[in-house]
Amino acid sequence: MSERTQSLKKNVVIKTHRLVSRGLERERGSSEGSPFRQEMEVGLCMDRARLITEAYKQNEHEPMVIKRAKAFVHILENMTIYIEPRQVLVGNFASSPNKVAHYPDLQWRWLEKTICTPNGAYKDLLSNEEKDEMISIHKYWKTRAVHGMERDLIPESSKEHLFFKGLSFWAYQWDMGTPNYEKVFTIGLNGIARETDERLRQLDQDYEALIISPKDYLDQRRDLTAMRITLEGTIKWAERYSQLAMEMAADEEDGERKEELEKIADICKWVPANPCRTFHEALQCFWFIHLLVGFIEEPQVGSGTRFDKIFYPFYRKDLDAGRITRDQAQELLEHMWVNFLSTGFLHPPVWSGSGGGGLGWQTVTIGGVDSKGEDITNEITYLVLDSIKEINMLQPPLALRVHEKTPRELLLKATEVLSTGVSQPAFFNDRFNIPRLVSFGVPEEEARDYAINSCMWPVIPGKNIVHRNPTAGSVMVPKALELALNQGKDIKTGEQLGVSTKDPSDLKSIDEIMGALLDQIDFAARGLFSISNIANRLYEEYLQRPFLSALLDGCIERGQELRKWTYMPYSDVMMIGGINAADSLTAIKKLVFDDKKLTIENLITALKNNWKGAEELRQMCLNAPKFGNDEDYADLVVKELYEKIAERLSSIKTYTSGQWVPGIVDGSAATLHYGYSGLTAATPDGRFAGETFADGSISPIMGRDKNGPTAVLMSLSKLDHRKLWNTLHNQTFSPLYLQDQFAGVFTDYLRTWADIGSHHIQFSVVDSETLKAAQKRPQEYHELIVRVCGFSAYFIDLSEGLQNTIIDRTLQCIG
Known about the structure:
Strand content: 5-15%
Number of strands: 18
Number of helices: 29
Helix content: 40-55%
Distance between the termini: 33 Å
Strand order of the largest sheet: 6-7-8-9-15-14-18
Radius of gyration: 26 Å
Structural class: alpha/beta
Low-confidence stretches: none
């Protein structure tokens, strides 16, 4: 890491969002209930909120998509911009480096509540004067902000799913869309604008020839015009940075920095308007677009780029021409990662329970194959890994695609990076992901181009957004089992939370108990989708994204903004704590029905009493077979439960396509396993009431996998992963077992995992003693990184309870 990179990194205000609440309760512990690190002094920028409000008021008469486009441009024309000292890749999304943006077109209620109440989580983010401005702005948005509109529109029977009571959790998330960066790099926004103009001319001709209806003509003309407006506004926004750099250069006394600023001015005047000519220009173009798509037009998680694929041609060209060295290229990448680290969002406090420690989830992908199935590994692949190793940061989350032709050298390099403790990269399996995408209707050549967005969602770069805001939500599978054993009622409160099922004494087999559990899941999932479908319709009506639309394949050709059509019919509902539920079913099957050591009534009484006075019975449940130890008795229960969940979900229709939802057991659930396990009673796997769930959809329960890492893989091999989706697997190793003589063994272990065909595996590489020391002396471990669940986090930014779930994981070893 260069001295300049160190300086830039040191000055970053880290906006990692801490876990503020666990479920409905205020979270305490190492975060002390503060949403950000207190020493960082994060604030809320009002630029976007103020400017979008002005633009909406000025354009009330316009169709919504035009209004959105003009608001986007008004923001770009008037937002505060700056260039930080020594920075060479420029672009910002808030008025100062320590601030995050406010999106009143999305939401206002929870923000006003948490800022304006004395004990609100965000009470310190605004001055009193700024609070007054925010309240004034919110008056305009009270009937216009999309979040909350669904409450008055959904059927009464669906409203109970809006509020978390232990079974299901619904909340707005964010889009995950990846522009066609290769197209932007090749023809620039001017080239895309010319395509838009040509499509508008063709549209006029089609209407004059009576080929299309007046409605289609007007709809398409408005959408295309909105796209054109945003392209022009973006070019002018970049030119603002060019002008600023020139002004700064005129006043700069240091000759080297003056030259840098003049170069920045030249680059920003050229891109993103025109085709990129150099590696530096491509990086700057990417950063501008990334900010606009993910932080300015609308908040959006993820990146979804195949970084080595899209940037290698520019690096190779510069290298051959003698314009750049490998070290200079690595420093530019390091500066890009510092920029990634500087971003952030403001989350609803209750939502922090599903993303504690997260920071934008801006995953970039390396490795994999090209459209013909050939390996694409190149020098940028290794530069990305080397730069991540040097800089030791959360951002960007790194996804490495693995396939049968992945060079051993690349796996050894990835192992080397992991061994430093940076918890990067996570590994994604082409052997699973490509056929799975093809099964969704994606052409094989395009499926081979997949990248990972957010935590672990496969997307096709440049195609219309696959994972849309909002998601269908999450179901707590152990809570569903609790309800199945209590006729749909909460064991503690007696409230009817699910469907009424048989009295437990009438459940005569494990199949009947599993059936009652599936009934509860089906009830919850259908309720969540009923809300999500309405919410997606509201997004189509009120939150169009003309800028991102212009950068996606098909939108200009169709004359349609991205929310009006879909590339791949896909929606999901996340299943949380599935392994706890499956291990619980295993214990019931073993102890009640097979060995007949206890009755279902005795077991339920123990669960209601949270095992009080029944420790011997709890030990029996703990000692029953557990998933992750290569024992068919437990593993096949997981297989049956997961496949039946997927089968049930496949009967639910989505808003976006009207087609069936793929069978999904989704593990991209961040910290929901901890944040929303608190309202579930004791479970038959031996878990106490309120205790956290397993931390991934196919991760064994923490500490219950006792036969080594290969046994875990053997358990995974018994699942038909083609019937599932986004299955998440965490493991923890001591750094020792990835270094020296063990490095080759670990790469063989990765090959074994890939041969099994599961979606994904990720690692924390740190021993438990280090984690315990960091808990006691956090000031000494500011940069200690761990894998949480689909993403990495600074350990000190996690609450004590969440830290404990990571400490409790089995420390695996190889050899």
